[in-house]
# Entry
Amino acid sequence: LSYRQTSTTAQAGLNFESIKKIQIYLPERKIQKYIGDKVRKAEELRNTANMLFLEVESIFEKEFVLESTNETDNGEKYAWIESDIITERIDAGYYSNKYLILDKLEKNLSFVPLSKIVLELKTGKTPPQDKDDKNGTPLIAVNNIVPNSLKIGKNVRQVKIDDDNLLLTQSDDLVITRVGTVGVCSIIEDYQEGFVLSDNVISAKLKKSDIPNRYIAAYLNSPTGRLQ
# Structure
């Protein structure tokens, strides 16, 4: 740019006058419109995606009557349970109402254990700090996994891939957090292949079946899935 500004402070800043002097590049009108339309479409798709995820949550709530799982013990001081479900465990948390409701759902509805449809489960490996490389490959940690997608920000740690024991992402695999906010599940898209998985993330490769991978990811992120 043809101008420079100096300041007596070491901290960068932006004021009204500086904003007014920013130069906006203007290509031909056709290109301006094309780029503007792409940005608008991206915003529309983002809003649509949010609405669709809310619709998925609503379907699960209706299917499993999940408003019941939000109740702890009906606000009562004591919770009474049937003698035939008492096990050798005596801790109060084990008999929490939300878990008893989950047991009833499993008895009355059709479920299949994940072991029947999973081909392989692996845990990633976190490279040491001396493997950091600003031009390297993104390292997927717990904070990068949000329901149904990966969140790769500009501050994601990047590492060298020079270890054959590193676990890399593959398209259509599920990645699940195993510490912190436990059980959050993302599905790996085609363009997210080849990222490094940390040791706080479990990778699940599923068998070929009639059950869509995206349905499994959505279920694991549902209240019932997370409760398990």
The first strand starts at residue 118 and ends at 123.
